[in-house]
């Protein structure tokens, strides 16, 4: 069968004009190439390094926003396509949120974990991100927490959050500092 390839943005979330992000394409492949596409149009090709290729966007503008995907090929044959990841470029108009986790960043398997994204704004909702996922883990409404029940090794990783308000148009915060969750 065809190899499974994945795509994700690092750091996750909306980036500001002039900011930077990396689009990561990975697969369980020995060699070959990744072609990066934006909106169905070829952008760049990179040779596989280990099991991944990283495409950097720096000094981002509105032109960098869009839906990106990776095609994995060996020689001239495309063997697999990734999902798409949506890169968004917008001004940050809200304060940076603070991400915390209870009971702490190091928990036993089977425990319940609560993520709290705190922002100094009366009406902002937030997204919780886990590095390596193409979409956010969860939307967290204002004044609520995100509870993950019976966590296991699959929940481990680097989390962050980003908040927004929607009053006609979206206003975004910067992405919080990251927090590493370890499940024993």
Structural descriptors:
Immunoglobulin-like; four-stranded antiparallel sheet; 0% helix; single chain; mainly beta; 184 residues; flat
Describe this structure in words.
Pfam families: Ig_2. The chain is an all-beta fold. The protein folds into 2 domains: about 5-85, Immunoglobulin-like, CATH 2.60.40; about 90-184, Sandwich (Immunoglobulin-like), CATH 2.60.40.10. About 0% of the residues lie in helices and about 55% in strands. The protein is built from no helices and 17 strands. Strands 8, 10, 12, 13, 15, 16 and 17 form a 7-stranded mixed sheet that branches. A hairpin with a 1-residue loop joins strand 15 (about 155-165) and strand 16. The chain is flat, with a radius of gyration of 18 Å. The two termini are about 35 Å apart. The relative contact order is 0.21. The mean pLDDT is about 90.
The helix/strand order is EEEEEEEEEEEEEEEEE
Low-confidence stretches: none
Distance between the termini: 34 Å
> What class do helices, strands and sheet pairing give?
mainly beta
Beta fraction: over 45%
CATH third-tier fold name of the largest domain: Immunoglobulin-like
Count of extended strands = 17
Q: What gyration radius follows from the Cα positions, in whole Å?
A: 18 Å
CATH architecture of the largest domain: Sandwich
CATH fourth-tier homologous superfamily of the largest domain: Immunoglobulins
Let me know the largest β-sheet: 7 strands, mixed
Shape: flat
- On the 0 to 100 scale, the average pLDDT is 92
Supply the number of structural domains.
Answer: 2
CATH class of the largest domain: Mainly Beta
């Amino acid at each position: 069968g065809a190899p499974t390839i994945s795509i994700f943005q690092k750091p996750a979330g909306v980036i500001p004009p002039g900011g930077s992000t990396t689009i990561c394409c990975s697969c369980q492949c020995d060699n070959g190439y990744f072609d990066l596409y934006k909106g169905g149009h070829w952008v760049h090709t990179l040779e596989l390094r280990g099991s991944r290729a990283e495409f950097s966007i720096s000094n981002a503008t509105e032109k960098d926003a869009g839906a990106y995907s990776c095609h994995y090929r060996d020689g001239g044959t495309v063997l697999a396509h990734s999902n798409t990841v949506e890169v968004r470029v917008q001004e940050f108009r809200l304060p940076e949120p603070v991400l915390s986790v209870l009971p702490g960043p190091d928990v036993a398997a089977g425990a319940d974990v609560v993520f709290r994204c705190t922002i100094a704004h009366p009406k902002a909702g937030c997204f919780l991100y886990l590095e390596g996922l193409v979409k956010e883990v969860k939307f967290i409404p204002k004044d609520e927490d995100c509870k993950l029940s019976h966590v296991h090794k699959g929940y481990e990783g680097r989390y962050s959050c980003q908040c927004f308000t929607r009053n006609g148009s979206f206003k975004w915060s910067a992405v919080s500092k990251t927090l590493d969750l370890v499940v024993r």
